[in-house]
């Protein structure tokens, strides 16, 4: 168990940073990606840092080449953005494109490019949100962000169907509303507590193939 290896995409700050550190604390080896700024992420004996702008296809390919020979027990795409709370008709087209590419297309490109590094019985996971649930969307607000997470969930279902026979555990994770730059200062949850719970879920789900959309308690989130 001590040699389990995880790749966490988007670990410069917020939930990705805390997730990467929690995995190391539990004895995982972690490869964590950042863009230009490392933020608070620190390399260490069990933590190595790679550079990745997730939306740059060339950078994704270059990362795949640098990781040749690596065996991943967990491939976790955490990176995403939010661009505020405009009604959808007031969202500029370039903002719509940026959020959809970052939150839906980018994560799936990363999964497709790196999935062959995931060991048999390994896990591929993406940070989603309850906000991506179509059936739970009964209150207004954050229309673009919600649409991007719904698109992510839909693309992950297509991915899971396409790769149904690969034996990987496939997870969409709802971390709850946390105090980060994205979640805001008034969010009710501490990232340290939430990511401890999320790693519990990841470890419990390991080795159970198929796609699940789970919250940090391991409960199913309705599509
Ligand atoms: N916080 C919440 O309440 C909450 C609730 C539900 C779901 N989530 C989800 O949890 C995940 C993490 O959110 P967070 O609250 O920790 O957000 P955050 O503090 O804003 O951190 C976002 C992370 O994603 C990275 N990132 C963004 N765009 C990227 C790109 N194109 N390429 C590479 N990295 C990129 C950022 O890197 P830089 O530092 O370089 O910008 C940063 O490390 C997201 O998927 C978010 O949707 C959060």
Q: Helicity range of the residues?
A: 25-40%
Global outline = globular
Structural class: alpha/beta
Return Rg in Å: 16 Å
Q: Helix count?
A: 5
- Small ligands present: NADP nicotinamide-adenine-dinucleotide phosphate
Description:
The termini are far apart. This protein has a single domain (5-215), classed as NAD(P)-binding Rossmann-like Domain (Rossmann fold, 3-Layer(aba) Sandwich), CATH 3.40.50.720. The protein has a 7-stranded parallel β-sheet with strand order 3-2-1-4-5-6-7, with helices on both faces. The protein has helices spanning 14-25, 57-66, 93-114, 143-162, 191-205, and strands spanning 5-9, 29-34, 47-51, 72-77, 118-127, 169-174, 210-215. By secondary structure, the chain is α/β, with parallel strands linked by helices. β5, α4 and β6 form a beta-alpha-beta unit. The model has no long low-confidence stretch (mean pLDDT 97). It is globular. Bound molecules: NADP nicotinamide-adenine-dinucleotide phosphate. The site of NADP nicotinamide-adenine-dinucleotide phosphate has 29 residues, from α1 and α3.
